[in-house]
Design goal:
single chain; alpha/beta; 26 helices; 7% strand
Length: 616
Amino acid sequence: MTIQEQNSVRLSKILSLFNELKSNELYQTINLDEENTKILKLCNEIDEEKFKLAFIGEFSTGKSSIINTLIQKNILPAKHKPTTNQITIIKDSNDEYVRIENKPNTTRELTKENVMELNEFSKENLEIGVNLPHLSHYELYDTPGVNDPSMLSDDIVFNLVEQVDIVFFTIHATQALKQSEINFLTKLVRKKDISKFFFIINQIDLVGEEKYNIKNNFLEKLSKLLKISQDILSDRTFLYSAKNCLETIKDSDNDTLVKCGYENLVATTNHYIKTHKQELYDDILKRKIQLIFNFAFIKIDTLLDKIDGKDKEYDSTLQVIESEVNAFRLEIEDAIYDFNKEFDIQKDDLKRSIETDLNTVAEKIIGEINSRTLKDLSKDRYIEIRTKKLVEDVIEDDLQKFIKKLRLNLEKFDKNIEPVFNQKSVVINELTSKNNASTLVKGFAIAGVATGAVIYAPTVLGMAVTGIGISAFANGLGGLFPGIGGAIGGAIGGAISSAGIMITQLGKVAFDLGKWGVDGIAKVANEAENMLKIKQYQKYVLESLESIKDTILQNIDSEFKAESYIESYIQEKFPQKKELELKIETAKKEFNINTMDNNKNKKELIQIKEQLEGIL
């Protein structure tokens, strides 16, 4: 059973329990409908989860034929006219069809002829529905076959590659790793995306036993190119014969399917998804379930306390906790000062690194502009895509270094304040133990959220292995660690986001100038005029990069605040305070409960809580 299937079973059990509880009058009293709705939403999300596989490669490498073998239908036309931006999306469906994406009125019967006709008729994405019992959790993306991958639109190079879980880069066995493919991988593909790339050396039926030498030579070149060990790349590189697979797949000839590479490709894909992204999803899902249950427990605990009259103690207990927390702040002032000082040094290092690296990017881009003709600069969006790649790579690297330093700073800070924290914890735990401290408190009593971040940091820094990257983590940080999300995660995410906006603006400027160059190229009388236009192009690029740099540095200054981070840290270090505040808010609500049946009510409430805890 896959992790996804296990999670589906777990959520189904939770929903069943909520349905059983609805017959209990106390269910309505404590109002668990909100928690039930949230669990139901998680169920729908996990049922709808599809893992996305994209196929990218040069024209005639056999991408469409490979996809035909995976869907077990010879439906995608091979060697059809290349386009520059049309994507074909293949989805699992009981009803087989082809249509222009998001245009139901264009739906047609699924035939190769209809696919070709719609392909010629429209430049918009195509959507194909086909029964995929063996690949029901996947969506396949067939990208345009072009003679030079660097001419793929940025929608594919960046947007699609960012969104998918695996990229299969297809290569012709007789021309493995051509110069245009090398340029694509090194100059345009971002470092954080390389980790999700798999390589298919197709058409091995043309080379016979030479296929093993071809693979070894390919691995040797690719290893030097990407600076990744050959052992790792070997597990991500497949020898494949789409032709042989298509000929034998209908006969279910397992031996031939193994020889042509089909079985290995499918098995490796399933294993990768199961052991990488699924594990991360599983961890996040468990945290979401825990958070939903925490609020349910708080409602139950509050009602139990109200029955016993303990709710009247909430305000006085909270005042004592707030007093202890404020005293904690004062007693760790020296540690806070040291943390802030180190944090500011790390922030300055980050700013200097980004400034230096973006200046280097500018030098590289200007050098590449100088090495290309105005016609080359005009006909495609190479400079725009190349600039995006370089900018995102350097920001990614610099942020990872920053996070590593931050982790060490946190570990040192935690160690320095541990004695004081332990003293305060004893006092606060004694105050709250009589109030049935919920899982929220039990889960964080040992380590505050910032300490949790230190423990979790190795996973964060390893996310590049799964193709997720630090920026995606930063954007989702608030959900995992609320205290960090606002102060650090949001700032990192904001820097990436702002950079993306500025890069997009750069792309528009560069592309508009490029179009102007195309229109004016016939009128250019001499090389002096050409050089003038290239100088103008350089000027626009440099100004745009300077704007990107200024925006990122401003965001770091305004958003990366050690004080905000420490405040969030302290708040999360003492979750009892937050829980009491929630209990006070809950206790203000009117509970329609018969006081004559207090003992019976208490027994039933405890049973509900035990049932919920048991299912976790």
